[in-house]
Amino acid sequence: MLATLVSEPFDESGWVYEEKYDGIRILAYKEGSKVTLLSRNDKDRTGSFPGIVATIRSLPVSTLLLDGEVVALDRDKISRFQVLQRGGRARYAVFDCLFLNGKDLRRKTLTTRRAALEKEISESHALILSRRLAANGLEAFQIAKKRGFEGLVAKRLESVYVGGRSRDWSKVKVNQEDEFIIVGYTEPAGSREHFGALLLGAYKGRMLQYVGKVGTGFDRKNLTSLYRKFQPLKRKNAAIENLPRGTFLSPKLVAQISYTELTKDRKLRHPVFLGLRDDKDPKDVSLPQT
């Protein structure tokens, strides 16, 4: 179930307001002692997070399906995708329970599913329950803004769980972060190794559109790692018309980028590279709404 982006915070009765986590969306399956972690694009991430797997395996239930976000927290206990990418301790922020002991809960209300979740899940070094910020949506947004969260997710308490995007879950961003497709890179300058900046794009309808380049947020380790990933993707012709001069790449890699705004001509202002997203299909990367 995916939240619909809305432009402004709101307060309505019958809704709850949760912290929006900055990590990797994961479904966690438990069948007896077998635990499987799957990303949004059906990649098996079980081997990536052994601590989370072990903790879920130890839960005293026979069958279980959880929905949540794998995150890593910074010093202020705020989830940061960049911290996760750089090897921070992974935790599973759980916000929904879809199956429990053989029972399908998806047609039950969020209130019922949350109660089941709170009964079966105890917080630990590897599992945390999604945080509800305030009963009032406008107050919740101010808390998210003050703490520096990515945003908040508003959920209707009477909603059932459906696959796909729904207006029963709405998200409001505090900090601008989005996914963009890497379509090329420029030559390095000065002491920089491998490349200077990444050329970025996103889909508007079926057409890729250039949104600018990002040259900050890299260290020596990810400069080297990215450069290696680029080599088999090189191509003679650009995937987008009128790209700046550089080395062109097939649009296969998705980057997480923070930025202050998208300008009127649809270019990123003050972008910073946060990491690669292997859980997102490039075809699903759309130009952000302005």
Dominant shape: globular
Which range best describes the helical content: under 10%, 10-25%, 25-40%, 40-55%, 55-70% or over 70%? Answer: 10-25%
How far the N terminus sits from the C terminus, by CA atoms, comes to: 23 Å
Radius of gyration: 20 Å
Low-pLDDT sequence parts: none
Q: State mean pLDDT (0 to 100 scale).
A: 93
* Total strand segments: 18
- Which series of helices and strands comes N to C? EEEEHEHEEHEHEEEEEHEEEEE
Q: Characterize the biggest β-sheet.
A: 6 strands, mixed
Q: Which percent range describes the beta-strand content?
A: 35-45%
Secondary structure blueprint with pairings:
Layout: E1 2-5, E2 15-20, E3 24-31, E4 34-39, H1 50-57, E5 63-71, H2 81-85, E6 91-100, E7 103-104, H3 110-120, E8 127-129, H4 137-147, E9 151-156, E10 165-173, E11 177-185, E12 198-204, E13 207-214, H5 220-230, E14 234-235, E15 247-258, E16 261-262, E17 268-269, E18 272-276
Looking at this protein, list some descriptive labels.
6-stranded mixed sheet, 6-stranded antiparallel sheet, single chain, alpha+beta, 18 strands, 290 residues, 5 helices
